[in-house]
Write a structure and sequence with these properties.
Residues 60-71 have a biased composition (Basic and acidic residues). The protein is mainly α. The chain contains 5 helices and no strands. The radius of gyration is 11 Å and the shape is globular.
Length: 71
Amino acid sequence: MRTDPVERFLAVLDPEQREAVGGKPREEQERLADAWERELASDDELDTLDELSPPAAEAEAARRVLEGEAG
């Protein structure tokens, strides 16, 4: 099991997103991973989804973080 937040974050991204985020400086990757972990911890909808499918909840949180970066 991965324990590094950046590795965990990168693992839930689709290949294209993983490549884009993987090409960013480590500091930026850490900032995104921290935002991802905060999103997972703070959103009640994700808590419900996490009970049904933890990978789906992680992927949804990652999508929201990256969408927030773009918009």
